[in-house]
Recover the amino acids of this structure.
């Protein structure tokens, strides 16, 4: 699943390519992906892109208002790539006709210079989401977002307040978008490895030093990942993400810090990875969702 660093990389790439360009055509081939109907998706056609922003894991293409429209009524194209979605960029969009149900492409957008992108989704479980709204707050997933951990206004003390009294495993806290925006399964593994913390540790058990370590690990891990994604085209972002991982997706490999074997815990639809030596005092985590450390 694309997380904050990759989505920021996409936002930076698109901002440099499409800001000021007119949207000539929008084609939706997956009706299930389109979550809104007013304004219609065709309302984007003929408008120019004013800005490209990221909200958590959501990408937002804001348009300039038409001459006869109020500034606050200019539509936004907002999308969330979910678990298996991606953005495929073209300097010249292919002329092939898109047939609904016959392609992994959910949406195609073409600009005045012939460039554009497809939103694609692999697999049979479809959860990519596209919205056309006048205000991004109309997207429920954006409205409920917690603070962005790389926002300069997000401080160590704010993190401490978010953790205080929360009897939830820290892995779940980091992934909860209503608590902290933008971090998912992969980067929560990386942050906890850098902080030398068990993913099963309860947030309410954290002392002052624990909060210090977690804040430093979160800031460093995400800052480095955003820097690694910066300037890369969409086609290269997935490989950049995989190449920067120390534990996530590296089950059975050696931990780059201590050399111990990276282990996994499997759940219904995902897994977490960790290093026993670095994070759990050498103990193995039980491979079931609500387990604590094996006795």
């Amino acid at each position: 699943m694309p997380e904050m660093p990759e989505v920021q990389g996409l936002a930076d790439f698109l901002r440099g390519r499409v800001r000021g360009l007119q949207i000539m055509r929008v084609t939706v081939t997956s009706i299930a992906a389109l979550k809104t109907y007013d304004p219609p998706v065709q309302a984007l056609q003929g408008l120019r892109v004013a800005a490209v922003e990221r909200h958590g894991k959501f990408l937002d293409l804001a348009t300039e208002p038409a001459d006869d429209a109020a500034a606050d009524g200019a539509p936004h194209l907002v999308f969330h790539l979910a678990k298996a979605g991606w953005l495929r960029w073209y300097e010249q969009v292919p002329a092939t006709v898109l047939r609904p149900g016959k392609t992994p492409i959910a949406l195609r957008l073409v600009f005045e210079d012939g460039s554009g992108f497809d939103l694609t989704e692999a697999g049979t479980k479809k959860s990519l989401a596209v919205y056309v709204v006048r205000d991004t707050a109309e997207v429920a997933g954006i409205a409920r977002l917690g603070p962005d951990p790389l926002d300069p206004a997000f401080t160590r003390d704010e993190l401490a307040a978010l953790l205080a009294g929360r009897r939830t495993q820290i892995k779940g806290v980091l992934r909860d978008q209503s608590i902290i925006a933008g971090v998912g399964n992969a980067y929560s593994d990386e942050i906890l490895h850098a902080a030398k913390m068990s993913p099963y540790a309860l947030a309410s058990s954290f002392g002052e030093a624990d909060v210090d370590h977690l804040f430093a690990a979160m800031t460093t891990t995400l800052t480095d990942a955003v820097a690694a994604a910066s300037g890369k085209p969409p086609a290269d972002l997935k490989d950049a993400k995989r190449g920067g991982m120390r534990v996530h997706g590296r089950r059975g490999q050696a931990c780059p810090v201590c050399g111990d074997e990276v282990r996994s815990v499997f759940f219904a639809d995902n897994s977490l990875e960790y290093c026993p030596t670095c994070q759990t005092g050498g103990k193995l985590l039980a491979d079931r969702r609500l387990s604590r450390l094996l006795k």
Observations:
- The chain has two domains: 4-143, 156-279.
- The first strand starts at residue 23 and ends at 28.
- Confidence is low (pLDDT under 50) at residues 289-295.
- Helices lie at 4-18, 140-143, 156-163, 170-175, 185-195, 208-229, 234-244, 276-279.
